């Protein structure tokens, strides 16, 4: 999320037509056409953040600027050339790294929150002990995970929260 993404479409020497067909998870389909013989580009129902990333004769790539959850979906490049018809499909899934927050609650228990990540983060503790987890889904597709460390048996007040996520792992320590 937040960076640019370039999707590559195969380039053939005798292009007749290049079409990107985009089916977003939410919203209307978007289509981009390029006719090299007329040097004509046409866009139908696409946001300003989705556009061609090429100038002939380079690859007919597609660029998505400031990628967000709204860009998730299927992106198919179809190429008509004298050699035949070809296609390549991408399934774009956007990863959103969670914000890590660590604090002590009113009972001096460490509390770790991995806020607004996509997909949901996994939380573990060092040292291992008893903990409770709670997940909350948000309208934008992100998930917040809250974990409370409650290892009363050992009396441990120094704990490290470890957040595992496909967009990167994080950890923080706290003394309560």
From TrEMBL:
Pfam families listed in its UniProt record:
V-set (PF07686)
Q: Which domain of life is it from?
A: Eukaryota
Q: Which organism is it from?
A: Ceyx cyanopectus (Indigo-banded kingfisher)
Q: Where in the cell is it found?
A: Membrane
Domain Immunoglobulin V-set, chain residue ranges per copy: 5-95
Stated membrane topology is: Single-pass membrane protein
Gene, per the UniProt record: Cd200r1b
Protein name as annotated: MOR1B protein
| GO annotation terms (biological process) | regulation of neuroinflammatory response
Q: Which GO terms describe its cellular component?
A: external side of plasma membrane
Gene Ontology MF annotations:
signaling receptor activity
> Sorted alphabetically, which keywords does the UniProt record give?
Disulfide bond, Glycoprotein, Membrane, Transmembrane, Transmembrane helix
List residues traversing the bilayer. none
